[in-house]
């Protein structure tokens, strides 16, 4: 997992999530349960599951983009802040260029209500994948 600088830790501490992602837990838990069950029987099921995963991840990244910490944390991959990195990920999710399994560590942390520092570390772990994904 990515290590955070003292400045990043300070921003996260100053702008806590304070349970703001809790409303997503049910949707993310549903996606995770279905993912783990591997009960795929036809292409139409695969398409509907892809849509479920895409919607769950889209809502998660929209919520994270709206966080004050994301607006203040500097990006590690571009001359911008993390909210803009998350917007780039959101676009790729909506285009179907980011797979659910790639985001599972972050999803699991949200479901288990992990500490903010761990959630943001998982975000920082995910962001370098932007460079490998189609625009």
Helix and strand topology:
Blueprint: H1 6-14, H2 25-37, H3 43-65, H4 68-72, H5 82-94, H6 100-111, H7 116-126
Helix pairs in contact: 2-3, 2-6, 3-5, 6-7
Give your account of this protein's structure.
The chain has 135 residues and is an all-alpha fold. It has one domain. It is built from seven helices and no strands.
> What is the number of independent domains?
1
Structural class: mainly alpha
Strand content: under 5%
Overall spatial form:
globular
Offer a concise description of the structure.
The protein has 135 residues and is mainly α.
Keywords for this entry:
64% helix, single chain, globular, 135 residues, mainly alpha, 7 helices
